[in-house]
Amino acid sequence: MNTSLRFDNRFITELPGDPEEGSRIRQVRAALWSRVMPTPVAAPSVLAWSPECAALLGLNAADAEASWFADVFGGNRLLPGMQPYAANYGGHQFGNWAGQLGDGRAILLGETVNAQGERWELQLKGAGPTPYSRSADGRAVLRSSLREFLCSEAMHHLGVPTTRALSLVTTGEGVLRDMFYDGRARQEPGAIVCRVAPSFIRFGNFELPAARGEVELLQRLVDFTIARDFPQLAALPEKARRIAWFREVCERTAVMIAHWMRVGFVHGVMNTDNLSILGLTIDYGPYGWIDDFDPDWTPNTTDAGGRRYRFGHQARVAHWNLAQLANALLPLMQDAAPLEEALQHFVQCFFAADRANTTAKLGLRACETADESLMQALYGLLHAAETDMTIFFRALAGLDIEAPALAPFEAAFYDPAKRTTSEAPLLAWLQRYAARVREDALDPAERRTRMQAANPCYVPRNYLAQQAIDSAEAGDTSTLHTLMEVLRHPYTEQPGREAFAARRPEWARNRAGCSMLSCSS
Ligand code: AMP
Ligand code: MG
After folding, report:
1. Ligand 1 pocket list (CB less than 6 A)
2. What Cα–Cα distance (Å) separates residue 398 from each residue in 67, 204, 409, 494?
3. Which pLDDT band, with edges at 50, 70 and 90, does 4 fall under?
4. CB crowding 324-346: b at 16 or more within 10 Å, else e
5. Which tens digits make up the pLDDT trace of 441-494?
6. Rounded CA gap, 133 and 159, in Å?
7. Confidence at 181, pLDDT banded by 50, 70, 90
8. Which of 112, 206, 347, 499 is most exposed, with minimal Cβ within 10 Å?
9. Gap from CA of 413 to ligand 2 centroid (Å)
10. CB 394 within 8 A of CB 455
């Protein structure tokens, strides 16, 4: 074994830790992390790895194929410099303060610094119990691990800010799960994903010390986060620095949500412990992708009642979450006004990013006020006609502006009856759009290029991921590998790969894993 991975574990070196080691379940006060080792597994085996993510760490194919790789990223062995720990955080779950949560099954291995000087935290998810596991087992099943691995890298290729995934390792052990909480628990194959991000700090890391009145601890975490992860703000005076930082968190969160809306991603569990301080998409659980356009859709069966985390509600939820973070930061600020101003800044940033989405998705020079209503009208029609979001926008780039017709969109409709009733208003919209585009006088080739860069052809549709899971559970990883390859170039049409761009097949409409997912993972 000869890896180039070099570690510099600032989080645990500079911030207070729990004096107790090991996985005894406990409330951990006055500390931001607890030392705990991954629990070894029976037979770690690499099912898939990401060459792009490996390259960030200076690792290559020879490393990924070496036996140490499966051992290390399956939790059976440490590399020199790794110092495993679980982070202590709280969070608001579904609108309610939940107290201490923490990394219940994620274990950070350390911070590696690559040849370019970039810092990457490595984290195993599903590596066994920690002090924060509460009543759960610290493990993860293959289906949810594969979904997280696949989507993290797909989001990166789509240009959406995200945590990354280095590897998907099966453990050779079974994990007991009751997928729909209906008393039908079964043993499922276990797996571990190695996640990679500059920082895994979440809103909830700040909320917990604030809720406990541990103001000095909170302040140390804020100062550390700014110093390590927002170095461009370091030179500002203390008060201005903290305000500028919170403003930047608001900005990054707005940009991330606008990307989700652009590509049709529904996170599914936007609790404050699942929002990254860096504005990265984090914690891929019961997430989903919009097939037929529906702002009220959520993939998460656990959220089916209130649908708090539905597609069209994500910006509002992000704002609510930022308000909880602002509340947590209040003890460090002399007054609330700058925090309120930053929350307002979030709204402006989101609307600006959303207008940029409209400009790009419709292939316009700029978004005029009337274009916002043009887009809203389209969303209403796509919903009413049960239209595939991805296929529709991709086809819109190919519309004949001189003779708008429905023909290019036929593959996008899920319900022939709804298509028929929506035909006249859809045609009227296409004519309105064509007139708008003609008046814009953007070169047609340029317009098409811009639209194709904003509207993906391939996204990790829920049923595609499920097919990869079904095959992988049966011992065949070729479906996953082909899907990973397609998703590497989501904006480029790939001859022979048309099936991956097709609308969801009918069998998948109401199938578990394809349209309905629970938090059981
Ligand atoms: P989530 O909503 O999935 O991000 O998880 C919420 C909390 O539950 C976090 O503290 C997780 O670490 C914890 N958790 C979820 N699943 C497990 C598990 N299988 N074992 C231990 N902790 C878990
Ligand atoms: Mg989480």
Report:
1. 101-105, 132-133, 136-139, 269, 271, 274, 283, 285, 519
2. 49, 45, 10, 16
3. confident
4. bbbbbbeebeeeeebbeebbebb
5. 899 999 999 999 999 999 999 999 999 999 999 999 999 999 999 999 999 999
6. 33
7. confident
8. 499
9. 35
10. yes
